[in-house]
Amino acid sequence: xxxxxxxxxxxxxxxxxxxxxxxxxxxxxxxxxxxxxxxxxxxxxxxxxxxxxxxxxxxxxxxxxxxxxxxxxxxxxxxxxxxxxxxxxxxxxxxxxxxxxxxxxxxxxxxxxxxxxxxxxxxxxxxxxxxxxxxxxxxxxxxxxxxxxxxxxxxxxxxxxxxxxxxxxxxxxxxxxxxxxxxxxxxxxxxxxxxxxxxxxxxxxxxxxxxxxxxxxxxxxxxxxxxxxxxxxxxxxxxxxxxxxxxxxxxxxxxxxxxxxxxxxxxxxxxxxxxxxxxxxxxxxxxxxxxxxxxxxxxxxxxxxxxxxxxxxxxxxxxxxxxxxxxxxxxxxxxxxxxxxxxxxxxxxxxxxxxxxxxxxxxxxxxxxxxxxxxxxxxxxxxxxxxxxxxxxxxxxxxxxxxxxxxxxxxxxxxxxxxxxxxxxxxxxxxxxxxxxxxxxxxxxxxxxxxxxxxxxxx
Length: 459
Ligand SMILES: Cc1cc2nc3c(=O)[nH]c(=O)nc-3n(C[C@H](O)[C@H](O)[C@H](O)COP(=O)(O)O)c2cc1C
Ligand SMILES: [Mn+2]
Fold this sequence. Notes:
The protein has two domains: 7-295, Pnp Oxidase, Chain A; 317-431, UbiD C-terminal domain-like (3-Layer(aba) Sandwich), CATH 3.40.1670.10. Strands 5, 6, 7, 8, 9, 10, 11, 14, 15 and 18 form a ten-stranded antiparallel β-sheet that branches. The protein has a five-stranded mixed β-sheet with strand order 20-21-22-24-23. It has a four-stranded mixed β-sheet with strand order 1-2-3-19. Helix content is 27%, strand content 26%. By secondary structure, the protein is an alpha+beta fold. The chain has helices at 7-16, 32-39, 66-73, 80-89, 113-116, 169-179, 194-200, 211-218, 295-316, 346-357, 376-386, 438-446, 448-451, and strands at residues 20-23, 45-48, 57-60, 95-96, 105-107, 130-131, 135-139, 146-150, 153-157, 160-163, 184-190, 223-226, 233-235, 240-246, 251-254, 257-259, 263-265, 268-280, 285-288, 320-325, 334-339, 363-368, 393-400, 412-420. The structure holds flavin mononucleotide and manganese (II) ion. Flavin mononucleotide (FMN) binds at residues 132, 147, 149-152, 164-166, 168-170, 201, 203, 289, 297, 300-301.
């Protein structure tokens, strides 16, 4: 199965599935574009070709549903988690190419980002226009190993951007560069295949090049090309690459910005970036990830975080079947974990392993494999019928979190585990699900049109 590595290829697949709409009227990148993406928050991707101001093209809602990720990879939805877990465990080294679509056009003077691209303003109280889907490529100065993240970009001057760096690998890399007295070179890659976005969000150790996960997801090396003015390589099939440099003590006011927990991040003194060069495809498409609790931002991180969560919990509980991070928990704070329990206590072990795997995770519900973990009704039912609230719920106060959680104090927060697995020593009939015998249920389905000839069969 061949999946091309470009955003455009993913859009072609969406188009064929009726999952790409084209906005026919002129749209203002200031709020109006985001308003449309909010209204279609669980709907199709939208391509904007008539944008007020700079003109140019933009696309949003590329990864606002799990089904889109599956479609972009030509995979059934049920196989997506296993594919990303496999990619994390069997990453593939990128392959360098000499010529790349992302460098069809090279602009290294008179750069004015707002004139070049239809950069949107997303939320009412945002500090200004932001590039929200920029995949940030950096290199550790000691090891030369690449690091990949997504960092928002506030357009502050024609060729100056502000960004925000949480306590991530990028933060460590920046600090180390400045200790060595060197500027930090960065490339921001905008307009990526969904696999590259998901790879960028995998929680792996410092020194693990996340672009290798993109190769693992594709099943072949991701093609990369050398940047023109910085010593970095970037995905060759991207739409736009912004090559930039950061200097020590060069800070400016950045934010507010609508953030993923559905809160505004307050104004801060944050690093500035000086743009050296912009390269792009002909007629580039600016990718927009909606911010502030929109499912797209949540899912990009959620799909990636589920993969490493699954891997880590399975190390402790080998019977781990599946994990799910719900949008209600911002795809960061809450997880449901299905296990095939072998020994008593494994429900709690799974929750411990989950908390150890991810700082931001603060509620882990562990259920048996018969529960559909994506269905909140089923999960609630498991808690109601299989947990004793004195014995099976535990709270760990003051555990490690980080400041992306609006409830964190000194980067700590309380974590709650709920073991909603069946007791292994309980008599079997306690968990027997009342229903008609299986053969009768089957016969009812077969005879349905005899009972109700004029009615459609229920799903
Ligand atoms: C759409 C989107 C925007 C993000 N913006 C930021 C940001 O501005 N600053 C930040 O520190 N993390 C941001 N993140 C989260 C980081 O990209 C993520 O934590 C990443 O795994 C960090 O990688 P690293 O530890 O390898 O540097 C964003 C994530 C997404 C999906
Ligand atoms: Mn990293």
